[in-house]
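User: Quick one: structure for sequence A, then sequence B.

Assistant: Sequence A:
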Amino acid sequence: MMRSRSHPTFFHLGITPVDNSPASTPARKAARGRHGRRSTAGPWKPLLGGLILLLLLASVLIAGPVEELSAEGDRAYRQGDYEAAITAYEKLLAAGYTGGDLLYNLGNACYKAGRLGKARLYYERAAKLLPHDRDLRFNRRFLESRTVDRIAPVPRLPIWNALDSLRDSLPPRLLAAVTWTAATLAALALAAGLLVSTRRLRRALRYSALTFAVLFALSLGLLSLRIAADLGPPGAIIQVDKVVVRSAPDPTSQDLFHLHEGTKVTVLKEVGAWLEVRLADGRQGWMPRKSCEYI
């Protein structure tokens, strides 16, 4: 059975109206920063104060309608009016507000309304922002089991599956920070090992440099895999009940197979109103652009 939270959860708006940071809980911590003292005085201070006042006023004016839409969507979802919830949530997206929780709730509402294609689309988008959310992961697997098409992926070596899981479990920023830190520590340990005169300490520093170098290589490899995955061919979700995949971007070309709503494809090429797509089992073909939506 599909998992849904007790009620739709949204981020609390701060001064910045758009929150794209991954988070699995609705509470958002305000960004902290240190402001140094200005060395120049005079007219800049009133201007800066006025600018801050305008920003605060704008955020209050903007946050009002957004909070109303959030409350409207929450209320409709709890009352079982999923179409109204979808309308409210999509208005938030159209206004430029996004976040993992919003996409997750929108996917839930679409599933409840019977829109399997839209539900999977929003789940896949939410997964990029909430990679560790257990409810989201469960609902994605559950929704895949409800789609008509049963596509078995091409067999791979277990080590590649393990690397993909490890790559997806670590945020890119964390991988970048670990890579930079490991490289810095390896260089410092190596340089210190060349300067010290004690043999035992020199050996310990060399082993430390080797350890940090190995950590640097592993984190750099995972970061490269993450970048390659992000820059690879985009995915898309079928949004129509049934679509014919053909051998060429021509409606009179040979029919290869059929796909149904909610199936995920990889887009290899876009030519006019046609897309060349590939399935997880390796099959390829052409389908109309209007039959799917990019993740």
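Sequence B:
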Amino acid sequence: MTQRIVDQTIKPEDLEKLEKKAQKAKETKAKNKDKVQKTKKKRSANYVASKKILDNSKVYSTKEAVKLIRKALHAKFTETLECHVNLGIDTKNSDQRVRFTTSLPNGIGKSVKVLVISASDKGKDGNVLWRDVKSIDEIVFGKLKPEIDFNVIIAAPAMMKELGKAARFLGPKGLMPSPKTGTITDKPEKVIEDLAKGQVEIKSQPSHAVLHQIVGNFSFTDEQLIENVDHLLTELQKNSPSKMKKKLVQRVFLTSSMGPSIRVAL
């Protein structure tokens, strides 16, 4: 029986193709590595100096954390104190999303821009912009910009159907009015008054089990900041979603707006 012999010799032109392919893969890998290195954020000298004061391997009391963060401040403006909370919620379960309002004892140290959508179209009055239904199209077409022209929307119930047109712009930013936050009402004056007294909306991120909240700035005393942090954590526990398998508050971190974060004991 004759055995068939297969010639497995690589032709010169095929070898050249393989070499080119290997070279291209090598270049792509090198390019991606350079890209990653370029995107790595270079920290400022001030940030590095702050890291020497704030040891993120330790867990501090709220009092210790506030004092250390104040000591590590380096910006030329008044920095805010931010509280970041890892939550034990299931983000795929809409019933476990956290959203409620509360009034921090000492406010957050900044004014809130309010857009009221109702029958009134009297325009700007301090930090409140009173607009009628035409403002909804202005949001859709970018003439009224979230976080620039307004931080909160209060809408009359009659406006909600029309406001649905802007839901794709407002929803991802958590700015759609909601009965949970009292921002759907025919009496916006009461909500505006509460906001002026320090009322804030506490909400978890849409697709992440985390919550970010400003709890004041460093023109406040340490005692005022500590009181705000303690109030936030207490209110979180009170508003824990039902049927949770885990504890709501998993880990808590405090940071200034320009500095590194440190962990706080629960």
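Residues 51 and 260 are 7 Å apart (CA to CA). Helices lie at 12-39, 45-53, 62-71, 134-140, 160-163, 167-170, 188-196, 222-238.

User: Thanks, that's what I needed.
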